[in-house]
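Bit of a strange request maybe. I'm writing a small parser for structure token strings and I need a real example to test against, not something I typed by hand. Could someone generate the tokens for this chain?
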Amino acid sequence: MTTTDSPYADTRDMYLAHAMFRRELGLMPGLVRGVSAGDQERTQIVVEHIELVNMVLHHHHAGEDKHLWPRLLERGSEEVATVVQLMENQHEGIEELLAEASTVLGAWRSSSASESGEALADVLERLAWQLDEHMRMEEERALPIVAKYITAAEWGAMVQEGAAEIPQERVPLVLGMMMYEGDPGVIQGILSHLPAAARESLTDLASRAFGTQSTRVHGTATPCRGSD
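Reply from user aminoacidic:
Good idea to test on real output. This should exercise your parser:
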């Protein structure tokens, strides 16, 4: 949770997650297509990475569905209801693509075949496009409303609950994935509930975890940024 003097939500946290999803989802089709048919070891590396990012995306949207949209409907105007309906509809479409990706992912994991790999890359391209469209609309239309109607405490509860859904051993990596393109000040705000020494230790661990994972997955500790 980012600490500010305002009683309402500081939505800058959301942009960290969006940058991570844009980057990682955008790179996924190329990762899949870059695996040679029959290369089980490389297939498993890419599969595990895709599963991690897709899991985080699922919990990210589940938190919004639970904490944001019902409250906005209770507190906002008819215009707010229109935006909420759009967000919910887009979430449903993205969940359908995540389910489709999971099915195709299983087939590719077991076979490492070029046909199932291409099918997976196609689903991931559609997912990346639809997710980018959703996040753009969320940033333009939903987040300004959230900043007017959702309290900082409610926002913090959503962030903390989402973090609790991630396996503990993967938390540093997910934090590192957000730190890569994130505003350091916002990152420190998210970790403000920790003692200074713990914040420094966790950010160092997160940075190293991201570098190791990116080298393993992308072949470099500095993959293309979402804005590139």
